[in-house]
Model the fold of this input.
Amino acid sequence: MKRVGREEQAEGHPRPQAGDGLDQPGQAVEVAKARPLGRARAAAGAVTDLIIATAPRIPVRDLETLRRQFPGLGPEELADKLVAGAVKGSATVGAGVGAAAMLPVPPAMPTELAAELTGVASIELKLIAELHEVYGARPPGNSRQRATAYLGAWADERGVDPTKPRTLNGVLGTQMRRELRQRVLKRTLRNLPTLAPFMIGAAAGAMMNRRETRHLAERIRRDLRRRQVNWEALEPTAPERPELPGGTGGPTGPAASAEEP
Done:
């Protein structure tokens, strides 16, 4: 076999260059990474729409109900109970779905992954709403308007700020939808390791969801403590039931089936 010298290579066999296609291993790896990322972005949009549709139907316990279910507890102790239940619920969802060794690609995106993202979001939205009740910071408006405010809090990982009209107008604007999609996309990319072989993925899914939900709760609680209102200073409010497609109230959605703390 003839050996090609440096001069011959320079004249008749030029070295492959960075822009010559996928001949370079590094370039092929980058393209392989880009394709799932683009599909994950598309999937995030579909899951975001599902979360938005689910949010007004998530059952939320008011302060009176929570105090009746957990008698003798103060605000911080009650909040601890709510966080513990939500963390356990999101970890259970992550462990169940983490066994699916498939890529999240629409339209072949696994139903299991979509259910995980929607289910965990519902659990966390329920937690956010009930933490607002515990800290005496329930946003004004009806249940649908408050659901929109809680969606914004979930996207921002902050408590609802009553001084910002965007968080209270009850309308999902373009900016809020974009923020929700970004949060879902980040959660999707973080959950990719859960799609590992059985048991490895299940353990990773439970651990990651537990960590994410606890981190969210810490940020929300830290924000709500600045605007906390003592229970004795709160005016009694009439309980509302979550909205259902047929106009009737009652528990529904992924959060309704999660284990109550």
Q: What stands out?
A: Residues 57 and 242 are 5 Å apart (CA to CA). The two ends are 74 Å apart (CA to CA). The mean pLDDT is 74. Residues 25-54 form the longest helix (30 residues).
